[in-house]
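Section 3.1: Structural characterization of target chains.
Under the original work plan, the team committed to producing a structural model for every single-chain target entering the pipeline before any wet-lab resources were allocated. The record below documents one such target. The sequence was received from the expression subgroup and is listed exactly as submitted; it comprises 292 residues.
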Amino acid sequence: MYRRPIVVGVDASDSGRDALDWAAAEAAACRLPLCVLHAYSTMSSWAMVSEVPLPYDDASAAVAAALVEHAAARARCVASDIEVSTRLVEGTRAPAMLAQCRDAELLVIGGRALGGARGMVAGSLGARVAMHADCPVVVVHPMRPLAPGGSPARVVVGVDGTPSSGRAIEFAVRAAVQRGVDVTAVHAWSPQVVAGLSASREAQSGAEAAAWRTFQAVVAQSHLQHRKVRVDLRLVQGPAQDVLVAESAGAALVVVGSRGRGSVRAALLGSVSRAVLRRACCPVAVVRSRTS
């Protein structure tokens, strides 16, 4: 029986190695094969990762082949029982990753390949891939050390009441089952504003109650298959991205929905998912709606 692989994009950076290790462990947990992908260019002496140079010469296919084989060997060390294949693609990384979408269960890429300003460019790679991918995308950030008394490990998911958040909840619950942790579902809402004036206290209370009912219904519908997983609900007032970034501290994974490419709806990735991809303290999964 054919099993779609987890595809991980690798390079010579620490972030690329973190993504590889995460993807190998995920493949083992899901009992899926792993495909190690590297995009390279023979047009210059710079490896192309988000169109910025890496500190090694990748002008020849032989160097690229050695890198991807070394990555495959590392993956087998992380999870010795997984099936590992390799793929070399001449070109830039985002198109190479997107070309694998239809045959992939999951795409995995590093989040901060180079740090600083270049790290911001690398982060935009994750946003571009996540916006256009036909499968879930995980961007792996370096895990930051927690202060004493930090939050327990859990899977955090953003919920906005749309079909995309329903699929994100399902993804989050499955991830929590694999890891043996709880889910924290977060829904951010804002008070109604009419003609530039804040709504009355009664209207705000009504809006909050309606938001809470919608929140509960969406989570309950998406949580049907895994009732043994505990889901903690958090209804908060304020920007969703700020809340999700704060919740990412100590989390195993943050999951956000994407309404897909095309139309104004794709702007969601720019307003919430993009901010979470850039600022989160843990790996971030972007899951598109089935209807997009």
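The chain has two domains: 6-140, 154-288.
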